[in-house]
Amino acid sequence: MSEDSLKKRYAIKLIANIIMIIIGAVTIALVPKALGAVSYGNFVFLQNFFIKIIDFMDMGSSTAFFIKLSANHKRKELITYYFLYSLFVLFIILLFVFMTNKLNYTSTILPNIENEYIYMGLVFGFLTWITKTFIKISDAFALTVSVELIKIIHKTLSLLLLIYFIYFTAFDIGSYFYFNYLSLISFLLLLIWLFKKRGIFTKQIFSLNIGIKSLNVEFINYCSPLIVYTLLGVFVGIFDIWLLQKMAGSIQTGFYGLAYSLAAMCFIFTNAMTPIITREFAKSYEKKNILQMKKLFFKYIPMFYSIAAYFGIFISIQSENVLMIFTDEEFKDAYLVLVLMALYPINQTYGQLSGSVFYVTEQTKRIRNIALATQPIGLLLTFWLIYILELEAIGLAIKMLIMQIITVIIKLYFNSKFLDFKMGYFIWHQIYSLISFVILAYISSNIISFKEPLIDFLIAGIIYTTFVIIFTYIFPQIFSTSREEIKDVLRTLKRIINK
């Protein structure tokens, strides 16, 4: 089966994610207002809670699955094995929720949540995880182009379905869960059809003669150091959102969830690139080509940091306008939370892309040790900012930013040792690119004001983008490119236009 080139795969990812940003923006504009701050906060809490629980049960196994399948496509037994493991995870989580309910601990662990929505949140979390697993399979087999085209069509139809749910049904948190079920299951069915057509899902994956014992040993050897890492991450993650829900209530949880969702749109480009780069790292490391890994690191990590910074800084400075465009008066106090959270995806780019090097090279013990050193600090920060200082959602946003910066510096340090480079180049790039975008965004946002949020946002955005294009042509290193590469892109665009 022939593979599409990395550039072609990323190009379609880029187009798809621009469309995803638009669809995501419309979704954010509709759902929080339709549900209200309290119900939206409860949805955010359930979503975060069960994703963290499933992350614990995952224990890095999905990453191991993706990397091993990327390195050797012929290992179809990995697919069978992982689906069996997925069923085991579902059973354990169902048992956990059932026993929590029987022992009357539900109100303590899940405060202010009605019992019926707990099981709905569980199913939603599990389907989300399975969908991510299917995406990993498609990326491992380099089916990015086909899957992204399916995703575009599916997401567009799903948005129309959501609009129907909101405007033509008695829309509440239960309805929103049912909408997500329909959306996720239909997408999974489409991917199953594609995988069968491409010969990935064959009769072979239904065979249980896969050497489960040896696969258990293989996955345990890879994931065992990640158990402590995952346990700490899940505990701190659940404690974060639980303490916010307990101390500040559903509305503040809703503010945090809204700010996180808006900020996540800034990360959508780099998030899409992560599995592609991870796959390239895996292939290079399989051949022990460290020099190629280093080239990929230098080319793409600064580039995607700047892409995330381009979006994140502008959203942060325009946060008041953004909230007025997407929400109503009920969410106006989320302004400062969004100012901070819009900066989170910037460093998250480094965290995810540089972190993929650890997984590919099976440095899982190092990932565990970093967690042991940093997660207790995060726990103390959460307690201090939310419980002691009572900063509510703002406190959690501050904590997320601080911890992201700390972990990124540590990961970058170890990557510099493994790939043999000086980390000063990357630190300096982060500093000057961030300052550049702040200056350009601030000037753009204060040149003209019409006192209309949407108009001000759009005009400032056009001016800001123009400034960034000019600045990038003068200083192309900000996007880890060269003036000659920019000219090549312009020449290609000119040829396309003239056809």
Instruction: Give the domain tally.
Output: 1
Structural class: mainly alpha
Q: List low-pLDDT spans.
A: none
Q: Let me know the average pLDDT.
A: 85
Notes on the protein architecture:
This protein has 499 residues and is an all-alpha fold. It has one domain (6-498). Helices cover 83% and strands 0% of the residues. It contains 20 helices and no strands. It has helices at 6-35, 37-58, 61-71, 77-102, 106-109, 115-140, 144-168, 173-197, 212-248, 250-264, 268-286, 290-317, 319-326, 335-341, 344-360, 364-388, 392-419, 424-447, 453-474, 483-498. The longest helix is centred in the middle third of the chain and has 37 residues, at 212-248. 41% of the residues are buried. The mean pLDDT is 85.
Q: In a few lines, what is going on in this structure?
A:
By secondary structure, this protein is mainly α. The chain is built from 20 helices and no strands.
SSE layout and pairing:
Layout: H1 6-35, H2 37-58, H3 61-71, H4 77-102, H5 106-109, H6 115-140, H7 144-168, H8 173-197, H9 212-248, H10 250-264, H11 268-286, H12 290-317, H13 319-326, H14 335-341, H15 344-360, H16 364-388, H17 392-419, H18 424-447, H19 453-474, H20 483-498
Helix pairs in contact: 1-2, 1-7, 1-11, 2-6, 2-9, 2-10, 3-6, 3-11, 4-6, 6-8, 7-8, 9-10, 9-16, 10-14, 10-17, 11-12, 11-15, 12-15, 12-18, 13-19, 14-17, 15-17, 16-17, 18-19
